[in-house]
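Dear support,

Our group has been running a series of protein-ligand predictions, and this particular one with EPS is the one our PI (initials K.S.) wants archived with full inputs and outputs. We had some confusion internally about which version of the output was final, so please treat the block below as the authoritative record. The input we submitted was:
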Amino acid sequence: MRLTTAGESHGKALVAIIEGLPAHLKIDLEKIGEDLALRQSGFGRGARQKIERDRAEILTGVRNGETLGSPVTLCIFNKDFENWSSCMSDGACDEAVMLKKRLTKVRPGHADLTGVIKFEQEDARNILERASARETAIRVAAGGVYKQYLSTLGIEIGGYVKEVCGVKDTGEYTFGELKKAKTTGVGMLDDEAEKLAEERIARAKKEGDTAGGIVEIRVKGLKSGFGSMMTYAEKLDARLAQGLMSIQAIKGVEVGAGFAVGKTSGKDIHDEISYSEERGFYRETNRSGGIEGGMSNGGEIVLRAAMKPIPTLMKGLNTVDYLTKERATAASERSDVCAIFALEIIAEAVVAQVLADVVSERLGGDTMREVTERYSRLP
Ligand code: EPS
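Confirmed final output from the archive:
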């Protein structure tokens, strides 16, 4: 399956084309809408989310609620385009407005500076419009389609926020308990940690600062043997890490025990193997995060992603004006203070994309009947 996304943050629309979906996958747009609404919410989101009411439309590939097997095109129109059309239009733009919206006080931590140099631009807006995390809206919409493909096989994805700017949720949770995360402000499960995290974000806002965090994503129901140790490109953990790292602002990814594996010895980290008639082969622990040798081992997949604090600070950092080369304070457009709640939804979508891809590679199938039949025959 191949996913292509397109669209600028303040342009007309965001678009996704998904190739390779089998025929007869039922598409529930309302469910996709729920994820889109969640992505827009959460404690610490900025003013832009009051403008947008993200709603995905299907332009191609679906008839009467089911895929046809042809490429599926999804689209989200940007409401804010109305306010930006004079300088974001594909036709001639208003020079005065373009100048007013020009960004040259490049932001540390953002794509601005490297982007203007690489693409020979004078205006970092030509970079930031695409670098913007607005793109994640359409990835969540596409992720909704992938989740529906996976859920017909009994594969479910959940997650929660583990950390915000040093405030940790240290609890251990079952997959069933993860649902609650979608109902809290920050996305944590422990009430005390949630309260402290909200306070921490409020403090960052007051100080003109931003806050990063860590999310944990879990996958239940993926049978063993997806991904392969045969080639580096097929390794499931490598592909999931690439997917997660492709999300704007992600700087670290862990699988299972993650970085802790480098701080311990073998006897304390590997998941010992048992066998019983009723359970077959099993492991009491899951420090591998459900992946051994680049393949799913039938356990829960456990992943974590770390998001850096958003680089647009209301109290701008020190920088240099790209055109004048003079010392400057970085541009401070309206911005989110913390988008960690959104990251949890986005990361679920991206994990769904990677898994749908990996599953369809192994199972093939022109129709959902073929896919479900083949999956059910696997051990
Ligand atoms: C973003 C800047 C802000 C965020 C945006 C990502 O947008 P604006 O410049 O329009 O205020 O709100 O995220 C979204 C619009 C979104 O839907 O997630 C950036 O520079 O990355």
